Amino acid sequence: MTALAGGISKMMRPMPPQNYPRGGYSLEVSTPLGQGRVNQLGGVFINGRPLPNHIRHKIVEMAHHGIRPCVISRQLRVSHGCVSKILCRYQETGSIRPGAIGGSKPKQSTTPDVEKKIEEYKRENPGMFSWEIRDKLLKDGICDRNNVLSVSSISRMLRCKFGAGNGDEDEDDDEVEKREIEENERRAKHSIDGILGDRCKFCRV
DNA sequence: AGCGTCACGGTTGAC
DNA sequence: CTGTCAACCGTGACG
Protein backbone atom coordinates (compact mmCIF):
# COMPACT_ATOMS: atom_id res chain seq x y z
CA MET A 1 0.00 0.00 0.00
CA THR A 2 2.74 2.32 0.90
CA ALA A 3 4.27 1.40 -2.37
CA LEU A 4 1.21 2.65 -4.08
CA ALA A 5 0.88 5.73 -2.01
CA GLY A 6 4.57 6.34 -2.43
CA GLY A 7 3.73 6.44 -6.06
CA ILE A 8 5.50 3.88 -8.15
CA SER A 9 3.69 5.12 -11.11
CA LYS A 10 2.24 8.50 -10.70
CA MET A 11 0.15 7.94 -13.73
CA MET A 12 -1.48 10.72 -15.53
CA ARG A 13 -4.90 11.34 -14.28
CA PRO A 14 -7.70 11.11 -16.80
CA MET A 15 -8.82 14.66 -16.42
CA PRO A 16 -7.06 17.04 -14.13
CA PRO A 17 -8.16 20.44 -15.30
CA GLN A 18 -5.81 22.56 -13.23
CA ASN A 19 -7.22 22.41 -9.81
CA TYR A 20 -4.44 24.39 -8.32
CA PRO A 21 -4.50 28.10 -8.05
CA ARG A 22 -1.02 28.80 -9.25
CA GLY A 23 1.43 30.49 -7.03
CA GLY A 24 0.13 29.44 -3.67
CA TYR A 25 -2.97 27.48 -3.19
CA SER A 26 -3.76 28.62 0.26
CA LEU A 27 -3.59 31.67 2.38
CA GLU A 28 -0.19 32.59 3.56
CA VAL A 29 0.29 33.34 7.14
CA SER A 30 2.92 35.81 8.11
CA THR A 31 5.54 34.19 10.23
CA PRO A 32 9.08 35.03 11.06
CA LEU A 33 9.97 32.64 8.29
CA GLY A 34 7.17 33.52 5.99
CA GLN A 35 6.59 29.85 5.31
CA GLY A 36 3.37 29.11 7.06
CA ARG A 37 0.24 28.48 5.12
CA VAL A 38 -3.30 27.99 6.16
CA ASN A 39 -5.25 25.10 4.74
CA GLN A 40 -8.95 24.94 4.02
CA LEU A 41 -9.65 23.80 7.54
CA GLY A 42 -7.81 26.71 9.02
CA GLY A 43 -4.85 24.68 10.09
CA VAL A 44 -1.34 25.96 9.69
CA PHE A 45 1.18 23.90 7.81
CA ILE A 46 4.48 24.36 6.10
CA ASN A 47 4.44 23.26 2.54
CA GLY A 48 6.89 20.48 1.95
CA ARG A 49 7.55 19.83 5.60
CA PRO A 50 6.13 17.14 7.83
CA LEU A 51 3.53 17.98 10.41
CA PRO A 52 4.96 18.55 13.87
CA ASN A 53 5.39 15.51 16.00
CA HIS A 54 2.76 16.38 18.54
CA ILE A 55 0.12 16.66 15.85
CA ARG A 56 1.09 13.28 14.50
CA HIS A 57 0.94 11.86 17.99
CA LYS A 58 -2.44 13.38 18.47
CA ILE A 59 -3.74 11.86 15.28
CA VAL A 60 -2.82 8.30 16.21
CA GLU A 61 -3.90 8.84 19.77
CA MET A 62 -7.34 10.01 18.73
CA ALA A 63 -7.64 7.17 16.27
CA HIS A 64 -6.72 4.85 19.10
CA HIS A 65 -9.64 6.17 21.06
CA GLY A 66 -11.88 5.22 18.20
CA ILE A 67 -12.35 8.72 16.90
CA ARG A 68 -13.07 8.71 13.21
CA PRO A 69 -10.55 10.09 10.77
CA CYS A 70 -12.91 12.75 9.52
CA VAL A 71 -13.36 14.05 13.05
CA ILE A 72 -9.66 13.98 13.66
CA SER A 73 -9.15 15.87 10.46
CA ARG A 74 -11.57 18.58 11.40
CA GLN A 75 -10.47 18.83 14.98
CA LEU A 76 -6.77 19.03 14.27
CA ARG A 77 -7.32 20.98 11.09
CA VAL A 78 -5.31 18.60 9.05
CA SER A 79 -6.46 17.44 5.65
CA HIS A 80 -8.14 14.09 5.68
CA GLY A 81 -5.72 12.84 3.07
CA CYS A 82 -2.93 13.48 5.47
CA VAL A 83 -4.73 11.88 8.40
CA SER A 84 -5.40 8.88 6.28
CA LYS A 85 -1.80 8.64 5.23
CA ILE A 86 -0.39 8.97 8.71
CA LEU A 87 -2.82 6.45 10.13
CA CYS A 88 -2.14 4.08 7.31
CA ARG A 89 1.56 4.29 7.85
CA TYR A 90 1.18 3.91 11.58
CA GLN A 91 -0.74 0.72 11.05
CA GLU A 92 1.89 -0.61 8.74
CA THR A 93 5.05 0.43 10.47
CA GLY A 94 3.96 1.24 13.98
CA SER A 95 5.77 4.52 13.70
CA ILE A 96 4.36 7.99 13.52
CA ARG A 97 7.55 9.41 12.17
CA PRO A 98 7.73 10.81 8.68
CA GLY A 99 9.95 9.14 6.18
CA ALA A 100 13.44 10.29 5.52
CA ILE A 101 13.24 13.41 3.48
CA GLY A 102 15.88 14.44 1.05
CA GLY A 103 19.22 13.01 0.29
CA SER A 104 19.93 10.69 -2.51
CA LYS A 105 20.35 7.00 -2.57
CA PRO A 106 23.86 5.78 -2.42
CA LYS A 107 25.13 5.24 -5.91
CA GLN A 108 24.57 1.75 -7.18
CA SER A 109 28.23 1.07 -6.78
CA THR A 110 27.98 1.40 -3.04
CA THR A 111 27.09 -2.21 -2.65
CA PRO A 112 27.94 -4.13 0.47
CA ASP A 113 30.56 -5.78 -1.65
CA VAL A 114 32.30 -2.55 -2.46
CA GLU A 115 31.92 -1.41 1.08
CA LYS A 116 33.54 -4.56 2.33
CA LYS A 117 36.36 -4.20 -0.10
CA ILE A 118 37.04 -0.66 1.03
CA GLU A 119 37.06 -1.78 4.62
CA GLU A 120 39.47 -4.48 3.67
CA TYR A 121 41.82 -2.08 1.92
CA LYS A 122 41.74 0.25 4.84
CA ARG A 123 42.41 -2.52 7.31
CA GLU A 124 45.35 -3.74 5.31
CA ASN A 125 46.70 -0.30 4.82
CA PRO A 126 45.28 2.30 7.23
CA GLY A 127 47.30 5.08 5.66
CA MET A 128 45.69 4.62 2.30
CA PHE A 129 44.23 7.73 0.69
CA SER A 130 40.75 7.84 -0.71
CA TRP A 131 42.03 8.31 -4.24
CA GLU A 132 44.27 5.32 -3.80
CA ILE A 133 41.31 3.26 -2.72
CA ARG A 134 39.45 4.50 -5.74
CA ASP A 135 42.29 3.48 -7.99
CA LYS A 136 42.48 0.09 -6.40
CA LEU A 137 38.78 -0.52 -6.78
CA LEU A 138 39.22 0.09 -10.47
CA LYS A 139 42.36 -1.98 -10.73
CA ASP A 140 40.82 -4.91 -8.89
CA GLY A 141 37.78 -4.72 -11.11
CA ILE A 142 35.44 -4.13 -8.19
CA CYS A 143 34.08 -1.10 -9.99
CA ASP A 144 34.46 0.21 -13.47
CA ARG A 145 34.99 3.73 -14.61
CA ASN A 146 31.29 4.32 -14.90
CA ASN A 147 30.22 3.33 -11.47
CA VAL A 148 33.24 3.84 -9.31
CA LEU A 149 32.70 5.87 -6.17
CA SER A 150 33.88 9.42 -6.04
CA VAL A 151 36.81 10.24 -3.83
CA SER A 152 34.60 12.27 -1.58
CA SER A 153 32.16 9.39 -1.24
CA ILE A 154 34.96 7.11 -0.23
CA SER A 155 36.33 9.53 2.29
CA ARG A 156 32.87 10.05 3.67
CA MET A 157 32.43 6.35 4.06
CA LEU A 158 35.75 6.08 5.79
CA ARG A 159 34.84 8.88 8.12
CA CYS A 160 31.65 7.12 9.05
CA LYS A 161 33.19 3.73 9.49
CA PHE A 162 36.56 4.50 10.97
CA GLY A 163 36.43 8.10 11.97
CA ALA A 164 33.84 9.07 14.54
CA GLY A 165 33.70 6.62 17.41
CA ASN A 166 31.63 3.60 16.61
CA GLY A 167 30.01 2.93 19.91
CA ASP A 168 26.27 2.67 20.16
CA GLU A 169 24.76 0.49 17.54
CA ASP A 170 21.17 -0.42 17.93
CA GLU A 171 19.40 2.40 19.58
CA ASP A 172 16.08 1.89 21.18
CA ASP A 173 13.35 3.13 18.93
CA ASP A 174 11.85 4.85 21.90
CA GLU A 175 15.09 6.54 22.59
CA VAL A 176 15.32 7.80 19.07
CA GLU A 177 11.84 9.12 19.23
CA LYS A 178 12.39 10.80 22.54
CA ARG A 179 15.45 12.53 21.25
CA GLU A 180 13.60 13.53 18.16
CA ILE A 181 10.84 15.09 20.17
CA GLU A 182 13.39 17.00 22.17
CA GLU A 183 15.03 18.21 19.05
CA ASN A 184 11.69 19.14 17.66
CA GLU A 185 11.02 21.26 20.68
CA ARG A 186 14.33 22.92 20.29
CA ARG A 187 13.57 23.62 16.69
CA ALA A 188 10.06 24.69 17.48
CA LYS A 189 10.93 28.33 17.46
CA HIS A 190 11.77 28.06 13.81
CA SER A 191 9.21 25.57 12.71
CA ILE A 192 5.55 25.11 12.41
CA ASP A 193 5.40 24.43 16.10
CA GLY A 194 6.55 27.88 16.71
CA ILE A 195 4.22 29.19 14.12
CA LEU A 196 1.34 27.37 15.66
CA GLY A 197 2.33 28.66 19.01
CA ASP A 198 2.51 32.14 17.66
CA ARG A 199 -0.75 31.74 15.98
CA CYS A 200 -2.44 30.56 19.10
CA LYS A 201 -1.11 33.55 20.90
CA PHE A 202 -2.58 35.94 18.43
CA CYS A 203 -5.74 34.40 17.24
CA ARG A 204 -7.30 31.99 19.59
CA VAL A 205 -10.41 31.07 17.68
C1' DA B 1 -20.50 12.31 4.39
C1' DG B 2 -16.43 9.70 4.65
C1' DC B 3 -12.43 7.77 2.80
C1' DG B 4 -8.65 6.26 -0.48
C1' DT B 5 -5.86 7.95 -3.95
C1' DC B 6 -2.83 10.96 -6.46
C1' DA B 7 -1.21 15.41 -8.97
C1' DC B 8 0.90 19.22 -7.42
C1' DG B 9 4.19 22.63 -5.51
C1' DG B 10 7.29 22.50 -2.10
C1' DT B 11 11.63 21.15 1.02
C1' DT B 12 15.51 18.44 2.14
C1' DG B 13 19.99 16.37 2.01
C1' DA B 14 23.42 12.89 -0.02
C1' DC B 15 26.03 12.96 -3.87
C1' DC C 1 31.10 25.37 -1.87
C1' DT C 2 27.41 24.90 -5.17
C1' DG C 3 24.21 22.52 -8.07
C1' DT C 4 21.58 18.43 -9.06
C1' DC C 5 18.14 15.22 -8.21
C1' DA C 6 15.36 11.83 -6.09
C1' DA C 7 13.33 11.09 -1.98
C1' DC C 8 9.40 12.69 1.08
C1' DC C 9 6.02 16.23 2.63
C1' DG C 10 0.72 17.96 3.12
C1' DT C 11 -2.88 19.90 0.54
C1' DG C 12 -6.73 19.71 -2.27
C1' DA C 13 -9.63 17.53 -5.49
C1' DC C 14 -11.64 13.54 -7.66
C1' DG C 15 -14.16 9.24 -7.54
From TrEMBL:
Residues 176-185 have a biased composition (Basic and acidic residues). Its main location: nucleus. It comes from the Eukaryota. Keywords: Developmental protein, DNA-binding, Homeobox, Nucleus, Paired box, Transcription, Transcription regulation. It holds the Pfam family PAX. It is found in: Nucleus. Gene3D superfamilies: Winged helix-like DNA-binding domain superfamily/Winged helix DNA-binding domain. InterPro entries: Homeodomain-like_sf, PAIRED_DNA-bd_dom, Paired_dom, PAX_fam, WH-like_DNA-bd_sf. Signal peptide: none annotated. Residues 34-161 form the Paired domain. GO terms for cellular component: nucleus. Residues 166-185 are annotated as: Disordered. CDD domains: PAX. GO terms for molecular function: DNA-binding transcription factor activity, RNA polymerase II-specific; RNA polymerase II cis-regulatory region sequence-specific DNA binding. The keyword Transcription applies. The keyword Transcription regulation applies. Belongs to the paired homeobox family. This is Paired box 3a. It comes from Sinocyclocheilus grahami.
